[in-house]
Amino acid sequence: MNRPIAQVKYVGHKKAIKLSHLGIHTTRDLLYHFPRRYEDRRQLKPLNQLVPGETVTVRVMVVSWEQRELRPNLVLVRAEVSDGHHRGYALWFNQPYIKRRLPPGSLVLLTGKVSRRSIFPEIQVEEYELGDSEGSSLNTGYLVPFYPSTAGLTQQWFRKVVFQALSESLPFVEETLPLKWRERYRLVPLSKALKDIHFPADEEALRQARRRLIYEELLIWELALALHNHKRRMVAPGIAHSRDNTLVERFLRSLPFSLTKAQERVIQEIFADMEAPRPMARLLQGDVGSGKTIVAAAALLKAAAGGWQGALMVPTEVLAEQHFLTFKRLLAPLSLPIALLTGSTSRKDREKILLGLEDGYISIIIGTHALIQQDVNFKALGLAVIDEQHRFGVRQRAELSSKGFLPDLLVMTATPIPRTLALVAYGDLDVSLLDELPPGRKPVLTYVLSESQRQQAYRLIAREVLAGRQAYIVCPLIEESEVLEAAAATAKAQELQTKVFPGFRIGLLHGRMRPAEKEEIMERFRQGEIQILVSTTVIEVGVDIPNATVMMIEGAERYGLAQLHQLRGRVARSYYQAYCFLVTRNNDVEAKRRLKVLVENHDGFAIAEADLKLRGPGELFGTRQHGWPEFRLAEFPRDLKVLEQARKDAHFLISSGYLDQPEFAVLKALAESKIQQLKL
Ligand code: ADP
Ligand code: MG
Q: E strands within 510-572?
């Protein structure tokens, strides 16, 4: 199974290089390179039953050939074919040599898409094969696999090589699950599953193969997480933070509001973890506006009060700056040294800060990715907090932690991934839930508008601004192009200033601005000097300006629901009634139906569940976001039940000691290499 792929028959050096681009280096890799789909080629239809648009396989005899040059460089060769009763045509483009390969009288299996321009069907041939022997071919007559591929590797070649690799290696496949275990869940042996996932005899065989392999995949994943946690807890004690909460209590009393029940409970959970000697690894989930920042501040303060350093890492500079200001304000009476470190911190300041971190003078540091750069060293990092965790990868989380010696870790997120999915994405974390908003918050009144109705939104914005409130107008998302996004936002701001709101003070914020400019704009918005902020999605996460009460989102159909909920969360931060306008193309019924979910729901979890159903987890997490583990076969939420079972089994195998018995040796080795691969 571990043989280099080049040693498999038909592969060779050149093809081996191509396979390596697909991550395939050994026979095992190839056998675990599963088909992306299957085509049912068992039914050979007569030619008179073909339906235009469908892809079919037919068995026919070539009757005659013709060739035409349609345009320069476009040659059509067309065979009249017969299935014995009915007539049809087979088309190839720019492959005149086919005529010689299939002289009249040849029996051939054709696969391709059906079209019909006359009374006879035409097949645009994608694959063909000489077909005088019934059914024994790899490319027809059964459920035919299609592989994720790359240039220069045809599907036919793939099938041949996988088949070859299977026949060479199946006798050496090491079973990962002992017989008893398989019997318990009625799972097929690994060798059978591997054969059937590539070349299933029928749907049932395919179903059983997938069932077996999905369970195995999830069991290995859960074992890796559990082993990792187990080690982390066994190997070394973490930090036991001081139980003395005098300073924290003084801080909490100084707040202009009292904590919600949920905040109190969550702080208790976190403090209990921090006081215990084992390293904390906790996820704090709380909907937008539920008040996570105060919780983080309390935890960081507790660490600092006991002489440890605390770090808070956030995904954007705008947010880092905001947290820094908040913390400075909140913690001022306690005179703790706090610093801000981002990519745009001046060199001189940066040097000072790095020194302060190294000699322990700075108690609390707030920053962006700048915090995990190589030359940042702490004297005694005791608590690492990551805000808007879904914007970071597992790796970055680990990098921040590694700045200390087993510091406690708190990650926070408002991307309300459904609780069940949290299990997948954050399987190695304990979870705390902030399931309560501060009192007096009214649901944001949300409206879906067509572009032609945007005046309604403008009228309300004018009314709110005149009443002393502020508004955000978010320009359409342009995936992968900050430049275009910035240009669109600039034009929009100009148009609004000159044509729509000439009397109001309009500000502009986009990702192409220098950090100092961004800071200045945010500050002026915070001060109320800017009344309407035209922005790209740089304000999506975390921004907290309670006086803003209107959020208008242009091109709303381009966003995921969870992201829109985040944006809307920017204006549900006070006692004032807030409004959200989702502007979308005229007559886009589909988009409007989807956006309706936001009109009717204000709970982030419900919205995320809906989004998940509509778009699947990959999309929910979005291309700009990380943190979603990759599985070969498992899919969520479809396979959640299996995941839960696998998790139970993993814990059982570890705590009972079975995992260390010889019959589980292969499984354990796979789990351990998974830990390596994940860089946990
Ligand atoms: P998020 O959970 O989205 O990060 P924030 O921590 O930014 O939320 O809090 C949102 C707003 O609510 C802030 O203006 C904050 O000061 C305020 N806030 C937090 N906790 C409370 C509370 N218990 N009572 C009233 N307001 C609160
Ligand atoms: Mg926040």
A: 532-535, 548-553
Q: Which atom of ligand 1 is nearest to the CA of 290?
A: 2
Which residues span the domain enclosing 105?
47-141
DSSP symbol at 432: E
Distance 297 CA to ligand 1 centre (A): 12
Taking only the tens place, the pLDDT of each residue in 236-283 is: 678 999 999 999 999 999 999 999 999 999 999 999 999 998 889 898
How does DSSP assign 648-677, residue by residue?
A: HHHHHHHHTSGGGSGGGHHHHHHHHHHHHH
Asked whether 438 lines ligand 1 (CB < 6 A), one says yes
* Residue 293 Cβ contacting ligand 1 at under 6 Å: yes
From the CA of 287, the nearest ligand is 1
Task: Classify residue 293: in a domain, yes or no.
Answer: yes
The total of structural domains in the chain comes to 4
User: Which residue would you say has higher pLDDT here, 127 or 663?
Assistant: 663
Q: Looking at the structure, tell me whether residues 159 and 21 fall in a common domain.
A: yes
Q: What is the per-residue pLDDT for 143?
A: 85
Q: Is residue 446's pLDDT more than 60?
A: yes
109 shares its domain with 160: no
Position 162 scores a pLDDT of 93
Task: Report pTM.
Answer: 0.69
426 and 570 together in one domain:
no
The verdict on the CB of residue 291 being under 6 Å from ligand 1 is yes
Neighbours of ion ligand 2 (CB under 5 A): 542
Our measurement of the distance from residue 306's CA atom to the centroid of its chain's CA atoms, rounded to an integer in Å, reads: 37
Q: Reply yes or no on whether the pLDDT at 332 is more than 70.
A: yes
Distance from C-alpha of 460 to C-alpha of 577, rounded to nearest angstrom = 12
Q: Please give the distance, rounded to the nearest whole angstrom, from the Cα atom of residue 419 to the centre of ligand 2.
A: 19
Centre of ligand 1 to C-alpha 368, Å, is 21
Q: Tell me: do 56 and 94 sit in the same domain.
A: yes
